[in-house]
Amino acid sequence: MARPVWAGVLSFGLVTVPVGLYTATDSHTIHFHQLQRGTSDRIRNKRINERTGEEVQLEDIVKGYDTGEEYVLVEPTELDEIAPGRSKAIEVSGFVDLDAVDPIYFDKTYYLGPRGEQYGKVYALLERALAESSKAGVATFVMHGHQYLVALKSEEGLLTLHTLHWADEIRDPRQEVPDLPGKAEPTAAEIKMATQLIDTMALDWNPEEFHDTYQEKVTALIEAKKTGETVEKAEPAAKPTGAVDLMEALRASVQRARSPKDTGEKASTSKATARGKKPAPKKRATGTSGSRSLRSLTKTELYEKATAAGIKGRSTMSRDQLADALSHTGSS
Prior knowledge:
alpha+beta, Ku70, Chain: A, Domain 2, two-stranded antiparallel sheet, 332 residues, 10 helices, extended
């Protein structure tokens, strides 16, 4: 059972319930140690006095604010003393519509749970009321030396707490992003084609269908290096689409996004039916040429074959180079 990262009370009006805050998400990040090249020697960061060059213990470190002329020193305990109660309470200021908070404000998500069975009814009351009213509670609280603005929501029978960015933390995109389109306007035909592409690529949101392929490749790289193997290199990034080629790129995208039933297969069937003929049965590829059958494979499939065949330099080869190399080995 996980331990809460923060414990305190949640209050709305005169109603108060002791709660614990639990991390809701995990990270796929693979952590590496820093080593000196050519050795197994760890590189570690130390707290060093820049004047004396000596290491300083954590208990001897205080905070200092640079005024430009001198440092104003602040002890860690002094930060706790200026707001002793606020670090123990989530005080709901009011309730807003769920869709009123722009997604850019959301930062991190936590689960909120009651601290004790005796507080279950009060907890369930707030959760049910939020769910039926489609509202979110807005609150502030202090955790680990930082004050947070948060949104309290009901999600699938429990309360969740979402930390929010403060308004002055949101940057103005007009000042931050160069080369915004400005007065550049796409044509009506381009908008229609782009909308058609979006409709063709429409899907139902299911986060379980997506996975962290980069983390999987890093793991594969580590495993390959442990056994002295090499791994497939990724294809180069796609070239930017120029304004001249935009419509053609959109048409090709729509064509590729459609299923076979909506494209060539459907078209050939309808033409045969129109002539009063039965559509010709599908023919299986006979692989008259080993090279031709190899070129029908994806780069990943070719790489796996090249690994099994022990082809050297395969990690730097393109898809066509892998197919050529395999054809010389007699693979198919």
